[in-house]
Amino acid sequence: MLLSVYPQLQTEIVVKAPEPFIKSKKGTTVTSEENADVAVRSDLSAEYLMIRKRVAFYLGYGLDPSRWMDGTNRANNLDLAMEAGIRQFASPPIVDFKQHEWSFMKPLKTLVTDGTLSGTASLTTLVTSTISAVQTATALFSPHTVDRTLSFSAGSGNSGSYTVLTYVNSQQVYVSGADAADETGAFTVTDNGEYLLPPDFGWMEGRITFANDESYASIPIVPEGHIREKLQWYDTADVPRLAAIKPVQTHDAAQGQQWKLVLWPTPDATYNLTYKYSVEPAKLAAGIPFPRGGLAHSETIIQSCIACAEGIVNRVSEGPEFGKFLRLLAASISRDRQGAPETIGYVGDPSTIHTGSNRYYDARQYYRHNSVTVNGTQY
To answer: Residue 265: is the preceding peptide bond cis (ω within 30°)?
Structure first.
């Protein structure tokens, strides 16, 4: 079907006979032949240049990239169409009175809390009249260190406390105050319960969970003001029980909108927290060629870009190409829903219970039984 609609694309397709598939044995090295089926699937997924070729072909620019620069508007039209098309697919139009949320746009991420960090300054220098650099011999800092308080121990220089302004690398940060340049020796960095979320973070999906060997109740997401209220009467470090999302206070236009995760109580130790979040996809480029979705949604992604090209060039909001996109979108949504869970879980008491040893459990799981009684009959 593809070749009949796009005859010029036949010259772009190279058919290669698959290598024989050899089942690997335990302890042996996986060879390229063993991954041949994976390579074939990857080759069929839409990628940056192929999407660009399909949009260019629709616009009449041809398949030769050198022709796309014949006029300044050609390159601009391609960029605009691809960017708008990826955004349209990521946040699709309403279908059946509901906007679909793609399952592959919700990855899992693990966050390791810091607790209080302890280190020794190997070098402190003056950066500007109001900023100093603190450097360590070993890796200690992370992007989460920004906005936290770095305090030097008594007997080391001025024994002062400073706010971390900038994360340079794992061994160096910039702090407020020129006096920090005179500090030496041991210091601590106090955890403030705030952690920088990934640059592509959109919003949180569901609760935050602990690692398997950390038997604590999952952490619900609450309004940020709720956390501030809690801190008014309990600001002692402990096991986190609540979390909130808030924007980074200082907006960096070069990096775009960034968000922080705020935990209460402030973590008193290292915890492995796992959460699911909705992704804001990155702009496609030669170095970032594959959009999220893979082979199953490749044609929908391409058609979304073509529909946007139709709107840009012909100045129509919902033309014939947009109609084709909607039909492919419905198929993609149906395919994505095939992986939906069969059950959303047990419905019961949502509270937490305390069983001693500072352990909290979700009552729905702790008291869960695999039976139900209806009208006196147990099933």
So the answer is: yes
Q: How many domains does the chain have?
A: 4
Q: Is there a domain that residue 352 lies in?
A: no
Are the C-beta atoms of residues 264 and 240 closer than 8 Å to each other? yes
Is the residue at 222 inside a domain? yes
Whole-structure pTM value: 0.72
pLDDT of residue 286 exceeding 80: yes
Kindly give, in sequence order, each residue whose CB lies less than 8 Å from that of residue 220, ignoring residues fewer than 6 positions away. Answer: 207, 242, 243
Ramachandran class of 142: left when φ > 0, alpha when ψ lies in -120 to 50, beta otherwise: beta
Region 132-136 average pLDDT = 93
Residue 246 shares a structural domain with residue 184: no
Residue 147 belongs to what domain range?
116-190
Per-residue pLDDT tens for 332-370?
999 999 877 776 665 665 555 555 555 555 555 544 545
CB 169 within 8 A of CB 240: no
Closest CA to 56 of 84, 79, 72, 85: 79
Of the chain, the end-to-end C-alpha distance in Å amounts to 52
pLDDT at residue 32 is higher than 60: no
DSSP structure class, residue 268:
S
